[in-house]
Amino acid sequence: MIIGIECTAHTFGVGIVNKGKILSNIRDMYTTESGGIVPVESAKHHREIAEKIYCAALDEARIEEKEIDAIALSNAPGLSPCLLAGLEFAQLKARKLEIPIVPVNHCVAHLEIGQSIGAKDPVLLYASGANTQIIAYASGKYRVFGETLDIGIGNFIDKFARYIGIGFPGGPKIEEKAKTGKYVEMPYSIKGMDVSFSGMQTKLQQLRDKGISIEDLSYSLQENAFSMLVEAAERALAHTGKRELVIGGGVGCNARLQDMCKIMCEDRGAKFFCPSKQLLVDNAAMIAFTGEIMFNSGIRKNYKEVEIKPRERTDDVEVIWK
Ligand code: ATP
Ligand code: FE2
Asked: What is the pTM for the complete model shown?
């Protein structure tokens, strides 16, 4: 029985996994009007909510504290104050229950949760607010094959949404507006497997100032930006010879992006795996799920040894469980 804690940014979550089965996945998000995150405020949120979320997760899984074998903690990467809040909570429980902690990299967990829906060795398209990366396991490490050179796809969408005054989070609203739009030319920016959005950002604002409709701009944003992501993902599949794609991150909730991934995969005889919304966004079940795999290969630390790694890179993760 592994209990997972997610704390890297705005979400505090507790999830419970047993033999690869998700027994509960409870989360609560720190929110602001504008969507801008104040790290110390988010950490305060985590501290205030932690015990309540923890109890709710135990209740939903119908287990008692004493059944837990280890705590999986998202100790990297993320905002230091948030990571610290998570660490303190994990340490408190680990000491009380006399169980070890398994430190889990948040990005790796987005990839590994693909296994819960059948993926075995996938390429991950990680498209969240802050992160846009193409990740896969190759030659003994998780490697970043491509990423955004400026801002994350979700933050890019949210910024445009703010510019046109439709509020936060922008993603779902832009998706709705895009349904009745038509395409206007956008700068398409991909180099190898890296993408950038600043050219589109400028173009979108200029076109809006010229009176182009929100619907057309939303449609064009999605078609253009998502094509870039899917092209980068396809290149990673070709490069690694892998035949599975998993999507992760909040932007992965977008039906058009999911469709484009599906079409690309069908075209090249690959399989597309799309986790449920609860597992796409930041969540603790994916931390527990990955933590269990690590725990089973012998990774466990005394609570005193665990530290946060705010800037840990995906390819810094020492992998001994594969
Ligand atoms: P991380 O720390 O993992 O990067 P995050 O806060 O940056 O987390 P998530 O919580 O994974 O990101 O996702 C939030 C983002 O997802 C927001 O930018 C939001 O606009 C976007 N989003 C949510 N739903 C949709 C949608 N249907 N279409 C496009 N974007 C969406
Ligand atoms: Fe995430």
From this structure: 0.97
